[in-house]
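Usage

Read records sequentially. Each one opens with the input sequence:
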Amino acid sequence: MPIALPVKFSEVSEAQKNKCTVIGEPFELECEVSDAATLVCWYKDGKKLQSHAQALLLSEGTIRKLSVQSAELSDIGSPIVLKCEISDPAAQVCWYKNGTELSPKKELNIQSDGNLRKLILPSAKLSDTGHYMCGNQDDAISFKVDVQGDFYDSITFIKVCIISPSQSQMELCQQTSERMVLSCEISRPNASVCWYRDGLEVEENDNLILEVDGVYRRLIIPETTVNDSAEYVCDTTDDSVTFFVNIAGASLNC
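and closes with the structure output:
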């Protein structure tokens, strides 16, 4: 009976161990195993990852990859977990930071698991430094948290600029029943933009199409009417361009 050899990982480079990336950009983590048929599991902050549209788990020969399509702040580590054990599993406790009671929210998770009570900060940052306390009317325990360095320092925020049109304001006049296309070229192909009409964000419908084509973002009205005359804005948060649109009736000239 053949003896199964232990599967070993090849040494991982420092660049792979300490990944620095840009918000909105894709990134990959990879490792190499000694047996091409071996299955591996990927974990983030102790939780097993499943392959989905934004995080693909790939296998290429002896190489195993985790491919994140668009980096987000939530991809940063590391978590802070504060634990205390109480004698009565049904007892209620409160968590405090610097004397202020804490409530659960997206960046702060409060858990109860039998006799254990946990406070979890999924992604540590400098502002999490402080004195924490878990307690009730009978007893309390204190924790001192000192976050050394800010994980946000390793993130580069790149502004999304509008390359074309180069002017911040444009005027457009055309006849009714014509196809209208408002187009912007932006500096990053995977960035999002919002379109507004007279200050209100627009939504797609049968006669208004929002198109994404590489670095181009377009607002298309297949068949205009005079009611489509308005101020349209393409906004990246960092930059914007305004189109003043006048739709003239068939008997009028622009």
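Summary fields computed downstream for this record:
- The mean pLDDT is 81.
- The chain has one helix and 21 strands.
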